[in-house]
Amino acid sequence: MIFNTEKSIAVAAARKLKLLLLDVDGVLTDGKLYFATSGEEIKAFHSLDGHGIKMLMSTGVEVGIITGRTSTLLEKRACDLGIKLLIQGREDKLNVLTEIMANKDLQPEEVGYAGDDLPDLPVLQVTGSSFSVPHGHASVKSSVQAVTETDGGNGAVREITDFILKAQGNYEHFLKI
């Protein structure tokens, strides 16, 4: 991970997280939009990301998804991973974040977010932990605490979940399994 702030600041912020929110296109996927001739959307998700999400959730950190697009494939993936907090079709991500924090009685420092483009920027500027990916928009990458070394859709979320697990002292548990 490449840190825009001192690593110790990012680690201290990650220790407080109770919720990690993720963008989809460009973070959970490679950002490319694939369509079949029938018009059906096709998305590819990385298994490393899925396992990292499951590990993080098993420690009590909730994982949720906020996306401006709507996809039945994403509904299936979220269900398969046990993600209950799935907000689709909402481009006003900051309003979504505000609603989530109010409903869950969370403070901004208890929430982390990973995004890659300008619609994510307002959320990234509010949350306690902020992450992006190497192919993210320059304005986003320069404003987050850390940028993954791994591209979105290729294990970037796993890099983020491993970082949070290590910061919270829970990573070693998974090495003993």
Can you offer a commentary on this structure?
The chain is α/β, with parallel strands linked by helices and 177 residues long. 38% of the residues lie in helices and 16% in strands. The chain has one domain: Rossmann fold (3-Layer(aba) Sandwich), CATH 3.40.50. It contains 8 helices and 9 strands. The protein has a 7-stranded mixed sheet with strand order 1-9-8-7-2-5-6. A two-stranded antiparallel sheet has the order 3-4. It is globular. The model has no long low-confidence stretch (mean pLDDT 95).
Task: Give the helices and strands, then pairings.
Elements: E1 2-3, H1 7-15, E2 19-22, E3 34-35, E4 41-42, H2 47-58, E5 62-66, H3 72-81, E6 85-87, H4 93-104, E7 111-114, H5 121-124, E8 129-132, H6 138-141, E9 146-147, H7 156-167, H8 171-175
Parallel strand pairs: 2-5, 2-7, 5-6, 7-8, 8-9
Antiparallel strand pairs: 1-9, 3-4
Helix pairs in contact: 2-7
Helical run tally: 8
First-residue to last-residue Cα separation? 25 Å
Task: Tell me the name of the CATH class.
Answer: Alpha Beta
Q: Sheet with the most strands?
A: 7 strands, mixed
Total discrete domains = 1
Q: Which percent range fits the helix content?
A: 25-40%
Features:
177 residues; alpha/beta; seven-stranded mixed sheet; two-stranded antiparallel ribbon; 8 helices
